[in-house]
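Input (structure):
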C-alpha cells in the first residue's frame, strides 16, 4: 500500500464525519447529524462528489456517502471539513451490508452515480441495480423513496430498465442522454469517473425510479437468461507485454473506437427500446483496469 494511502487511512480515523464499519447505527442517524432532516445515500460514492455537491445544494437535508475505499472517502470528507459542510458525512462499509446500518424508512433517496457497470456477464449480479441490491434498498427506503442512476454505460442503463420491467419498479424519469435536453441541477454535478468518460459513449444516461412496497417477484432466472442471450459480450481486455509495461498500449482493430452509427445518432434522447452496447463501450473494456480501481461495491 502506498504511503499516501496509509496517511489517508490514518487521517480518516480522526475525522468526525467518517464512520468506519460502525455498530448500532440503525435508528441513530438523527442523533449523529443532530437534526431530524431527511437522509439521502450515495452508494459507491468514491470521492463523494455527489455527497458533497448535493449537501451544498440542499443544506436542509442530510447526505451520506457509502463506500469501502477509505482512500477515496478521504477526499470528500476532507472537503466537507475544510468548507464546514455539516450535513454531509461518510460511511465506510460494504454495500451488501447496508441494511445493518438503517431501519426501514430511514432513507429518503439513493443515488448511484457512475457505479462499475460490471460488463462481464459472469459478474452481472454485482451491478448495483441487480434485484439482489434492489431488495436491500427496499428494506431501508421510506415508501415512495426514489433511486437515481446516472451512468455512461449503455449496458447498465438497459439492464436497469429490464429490471424495472421485470420486477414492477416505477420509472419516473428516463433519459438516454441528459445532455440532449435542459438538465436539472442535480445532474450537473460531475464525478471523477464521469470526467474520465471510461465508456467513451459520449452520453450520460439517467433513470429515476421507485420500488414497490410488496416483496419483489422471483424472476431472477428470467433476468439471467435475458442477460445471457441479449447482452453483447465484451471483448477480452488487451494487456501489453510484460516487458513493455512503460510502452504505449496498442488497441486491436476489433476493439477500436468507431463512429456512432447513423441509426444510433438519430435515436431519441428518451427511449424504452433496447440500447445495444456501442463499439465505444466495447473498447472501454480495454480500460477495465480503470473501473476495477474504482470503488468496489461488494468486496475488499
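Output (sequence):
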Amino acid at each position: 500500500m502506498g504511503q499516501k494511502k496509509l496517511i489517508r487511512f490514518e487521517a480518516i480515523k480522526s475525522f468526525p464525519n467518517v464512520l468506519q464499519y460502525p455498530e448500532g447505527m440503525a435508528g441513530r442517524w438523527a442523533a449523529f447529524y443532530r437534526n431530524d432532516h431527511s437522509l439521502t445515500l450515495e452508494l459507491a460514492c468514491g470521492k463523494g462528489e455527489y455527497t458533497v455537491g448535493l449537501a451544498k445544494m440542499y443544506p436542509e437535508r442530510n447526505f451520506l456517502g457509502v463506500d469501502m475505499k477509505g482512500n477515496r472517502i478521504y477526499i470528500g470528507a476532507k472537503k466537507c471539513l475544510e468548507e464546514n459542510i455539516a450535513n454531509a458525512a461518510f460511511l465506510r462499509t460494504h454495500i451488501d451490508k447496508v441494511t445493518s446500518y438503517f431501519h426501514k424508512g430511514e432513507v429518503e433517496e439513493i443515488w448511484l452515480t457512475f457505479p462499475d457497470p460490471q460488463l462481464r456477464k459472469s459478474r452481472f449480479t454485482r451491478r448495483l441495480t441487480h434485484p439482489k441490491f434492489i431488495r436491500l434498498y427496499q428494506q431501508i427506503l421510506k415508501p415512495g423513496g426514489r433511486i437515481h442512476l446516472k451512468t455512461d454505460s449503455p449496458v447498465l442503463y438497459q439492464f436497469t430498465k429490464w429490471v424495472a420491467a421485470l420486477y414492477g419498479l416505477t420509472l419516473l424519469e428516463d433519459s438516454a442522454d441528459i445532455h440532449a435536453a435542459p438538465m436539472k441541477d442535480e445532474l450537473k454535478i460531475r464525478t471523477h469517473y464521469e470526467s474520465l468518460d471510461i465508456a467513451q459513449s459520449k452520453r450520460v444516461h439517467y433513470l429515476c425510479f421507485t420500488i414497490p412496497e410488496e416483496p419483489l417477484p422471483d424472476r431472477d432466472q428470467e433476468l439471467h437468461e435475458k442477460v445471457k442471450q441479449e447482452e453483447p459480450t465484451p471483448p477480452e481486455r488487451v494487456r501489453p507485454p510484460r516487458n513493455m509495461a512503460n510502452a504505449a498500449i496498442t488497441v486491436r482493430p476489433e476493439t477500436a473506437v468507431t463512429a456512432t452509427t447513423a441509426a444510433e445518432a438519430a435515436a431519441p434522447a428518451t427511449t424504452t427500446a433496447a440500447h445495444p452496447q456501442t463499439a465505444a463501450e466495447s473498447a472501454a473494456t480495454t480500460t477495465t483496469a480503470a473501473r476495477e480501481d474504482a470503488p468496489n461495491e461488494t468486496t475488499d
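Notes: The longest strand covers residues 141-151. Residues 244-290, 292-300 have pLDDT under 50 and may be disordered.
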